[in-house]
Amino acid sequence: MFKLITRFLRSIGIFVIVLATFATISLGFLGRTMQEGTNVKKLLDVLNWPDLFAYDLRSKLHIDKNPKNTNTVLIEIDDQSLQKLQRWPIPRDYWATMLDNLADYDAKVVAFDAIFPEPVQACGEESPDDVFARAVTKFNSKEGSSVIMAYTVQDENTATEFLPTAPLELMTSMIPSQVSPNCKAFSHSRIEKHNWPIDKLVETESEMGYLNNKEDFDGVFRHYTVYASVYSEDMESYLLLPSLGFRAFMSSNETNDLSVNIQSDCSGSVDINGKNINFNSSGETKLRWTGLGEKFKSIPLYRVIEGKDYTNDAGEEIILKDFFKDQIVFIGSTATGAHDFRNTPVDAKTPGVYAHINLVDMMKRQYFYKPIEETIKTSLIGFSIAITLLMIIMFFNKAILDIFGMAILIYAMWYIDFKYFYMLGYELKLASATFGLLVSYFWITFLNFNQTSAEKKQIKGAFSRYVAPSIVDDMLDNPEKLKIGGEKRDITCMFSDVRDFTSISEKLTPTELATSLNRYMGEMTDIVFATNGTLDKYIGDAIVAFWGAPLDIGDHVTQAVEAGVLMMEALPAINKEFKDKGLPEFKIGLGLNSGECSVGNMGSDAIFAYTALGDNMNLGARLESLCKHYGAQILISEYTYQKMDQSKFTCRIIDKVRVKGKSLPVAVYEVLYSYHDFMVDQDALNNFRKAYDLYLEGKFEDAKTLFEGILEVHHNDAASLRLQASCVHWIENPPKEGEDWTITTMTSK
């Protein structure tokens, strides 16, 4: 039943884990476009964070694999330029000089990652703003060339200081679009008033691009807002306006026929030379970083203003005309003191201008991410394959195989993504898939551990009734030593019985009888356990035990014989207690035999017991019964005698017996204990052994004489009395030819 429950919980648990992983993978992309501050968004952000971390890691690992860009130049407002120019902000006549030089160098597009929101106060006849505006106009007048001025926008719901409407000058920069009439949740923006260029620059008819990008909830900039929707009173509709990077790409695009297609869910896409780049309902795309400084051509601002060819630090000769010809030029700050840095997946301090440059490079190379639907589908298929393989591996229930299989699966997922899927543009949800695998692994491992603990508890509960606690602990620590169910084992069995117990019980009240029997059996059972024995059963006053099962305890024969001796050694103290209480003394007989038996849980499905069965168990029972016949307390078979450590015990052979139900005789030995008469009188023991040997040789007169000598001292030694009587019988009735006087055949049990 417990295993069925475990299987049910395993199935339900894996189903829930797989379902949760599917949901996490599928919903991970939604949090970005949800309303800030909602509990659902917070939950999705938390669930998606591991995948964002994985995205950052893969972006860093792949950025060095991308080829160097050859069509974009960054003019850096760097520390060296600020030191050389000795002016901040950069004077606008310097910008004019730079633009004039770029026009001479045949630069194609110049995009300012800088805003000029305030006019410059001047005392001369011509202000620097006029000089700058004239240079912009001049550059724009060249065929195929354009200057892009920057501004910023703000979410319509949070904007405070903004232009009331989109200026007409933005009309030339707007993006053609096709918007589905079912799109109702499109994000709209307003132009920030304090970050709009001065009129003189706006009037140059330059193209416009906004700068804003929104970081993720953890402060990392992973998305790039490609376009924003801004309301125009003149058009009585919203205009789709490009970012600085997208405007630069549009201006450099030879066909210049780009159009945004906005779907019913307000997500969008743009076809670039037959390949779509996709955007969410906020006009954002995941920026696929292609490089930083070392991947793009760059030059300090002061070098362009100077307008002189030079040799850079790497020893390369820079010919400015060749350097800028037909290039998209971005101007942005990389100076330490400018504080224009962003925390991006590839660097915690990335100059903000590189976001625009990477977008242009990404679009030029068509280095886009796959549509979300494809990414989700591939992620789910990959996870399904991995979880299926994990279930197959864990089916074998091998802990080492499980953990190695788990590690290999996770490594394989990340390696295949690194070498194949990421390069194709799949933004796989590896962290969610990995977490799903780990949770599945730990869930199954937990259930297996719980099942093992329950089984150990069940084993301990069952076997603690039969064997010593030390053996139970060993079974639990080393389950490979234990085989549940019937099996053949070489064991030593013991049958113990209280002599004349029926007459003893008739003299005692029920309470006295229970007290006496419990005291005796408690002591004897403790001895069984102390010698690593297994208690088979109690049969009235009889105790049945065996050694060597369910665990291999080593020399089970010697330990069993030792238990018999210890029982006899413990009996005097028990009888003294009984005598002091006026209770009858106990006399016991023990029979031990060694050999192969069937051991295991025997019985019905409802009630069973761990026991041993077989001919060798029957022989042990016969030996216990023979204790009365031979007047002995401990009898062992020749099989036990031959296997035990004979140096630890003193024994004497007293007969060869053919027990009832057996055709072959077995030699029977008596094991002596410390207060046995023959342990005290070793001479008598030696004489008995000599007499028995003479008896076996058929020298009955000599044997009779020795037995009589023993009986003069030990009048009640039953073995000597029986053998002395046998000698008299064979002297008076000599054995006939073929008659074996050495074997006693028992006709009863």
Question: What's the layout of helices and strands?
Answer:
Elements: H1 2-27, H2 39-63, E1 72-77, H3 79-85, H4 92-104, E2 109-112, H5 128-141, E3 146-151, E4 153-155, E5 177-179, E6 188-191, H6 199-202, E7 207-210, E8 223-225, E9 227-232, E10 237-242, H7 244-252, E11 260-262, E12 268-272, E13 275-279, E14 284-286, E15 297-300, H8 301-306, E16 310-311, E17 317-318, H9 320-324, E18 328-333, E19 341-342, E20 350-351, H10 353-364, H11 372-395, H12 399-424, H13 430-463, H14 469-477, E21 487-498, H15 501-506, H16 510-530, E22 534-539, E23 542-547, H17 556-580, E24 588-603, E25 608-613, H18 615-630, E26 634-637, H19 638-643, E27 650-658, E28 666-672, H20 677-680, H21 682-697, H22 700-713, H23 718-732, E29 743-745
Parallel strand pairs: 1-15, 1-18, 2-3, 2-18, 3-7, 5-11, 6-9, 24-26, 27-29
Antiparallel strand pairs: 4-6, 8-14, 9-10, 11-12, 12-13, 16-17, 19-20, 21-23, 21-24, 22-23, 24-25, 26-28, 27-28
Structure commentary:
The chain has 749 residues and is of the alpha/beta class. The chain folds into 3 domains: 2-62 and 369-452, no CATH class; 67-118 and 127-364, no CATH class; 478-675, Nucleotide cyclase, GGDEF domain (Alpha-Beta Plaits, 2-Layer Sandwich). The chain is built from 23 helices and 29 strands. The strands form 7 sheets. Strands 21, 22, 23, 24, 25, 26, 27, 28 and 29 form a 9-stranded mixed β-sheet that branches. It has a 6-stranded parallel β-sheet with strand order 7-3-2-18-1-15, sandwiched between helices. The longest helix is centred in the middle third of the chain and has 34 residues, at 430-463.
